Amino acid sequence: MLGRVEEIPLAGGNVSAGVVRVGDTVRRPVGEWTPAVHALLRHLEEVGFHGSPRVLGFDEEGREVLTYFDGVSLSLDAPELLGSLDGVGKAGALAADLAAALRTFVAPESARWWHGAVDPLAGSTIIHGDLAPWNVIVDGNEWGLIDWDFAGPGRFEWEASYTLYTFGLSPALGLSDAETVARIRSFGDGARLAASALADVLRLVPPRTRATAEMIERLAAGGHPGYSVLEREGHARAWRAASEHVSTRMAHWLAELKLAASD
Fold it and tell me: What residue ranges do the domains of the chain occupy?
């Protein structure tokens, strides 16, 4: 049984309460999806993917125990990375490397996953589900990806479209069209995407961001306390506005990238 030492609450999450640091570990409440997520994380450890925490089991209170990532929050403490083309390219590389590592993962037959912003065309492949700046810990040149509760079936393109938006296209970044196009191109280079594949990812941004808005609304309507707060704070409206913004500029960006505006 793991010994008890000082518990330090970890802030920053919008919907995950009760996450604490204990020494060099993180303790988190469990859900019905935890066994499947642990199988996924153990697979990533076996194939040598360094950007995920390691599973250490459960503590005496029944919480899952994971390794703690040293470093700082990308979204809270490293804004210069969010503003740089290098940061967008590294996000693309992280998404591609994770997809490659998960390609050989076979989910347990009993796997149950969180029902969040579900990919409507999901197959057997598994994605992180929330690969965004707020779930990245930076330690020098190393990026660690946390908060795996949203993992579940999904296409790489569904994951990548969300990552591209959160790292590179958000209206909050105040970018010109030229700057946006440069960021899309940097993401594609980092993710090692051919032109047609990059176009597919970009076209998925509007439905992917809209799915996030719908998830917030659905869970808030169901009484989830964290998502009820997000709904009241206007997050669903912001995601819908994001979907509309990208849809409006899509043809221009595709043209500037010399990608086909339609299939």
Answer: 7-67, 74-256
Per-residue buried b or exposed e for 61-77, using 16+ beta carbons within 10 Å of the residue's own CB: eebbbbbbbebebbbee
90: tokens are 């590294």
CB-based contact 107:126 (threshold 8 Å): yes
Closest CA to 119 of 163, 165, 159, 166: 159
How far lies 63's CA from each of 22, 26, 103, 124, in Å? 12, 9, 28, 28
Indicate whether 241 pLDDT > 50: yes
CB 146 within 8 A of CB 166: no
**Range of weakest confidence among 3-7, 112-116, 249-253:** 3-7
CA–CA separation, 71 and 54 (whole Å)? 16
Distance in angstroms between the alpha carbons of the first and the last residue of the chain = 57
Mean of the per-residue pLDDT values for the chain?
Answer: 92
pLDDT for position 17? 66
Beta bridge partners of 9: 20
Give tens-digit pLDDT for 14-34.
Answer: 556 689 999 999 999 999 999
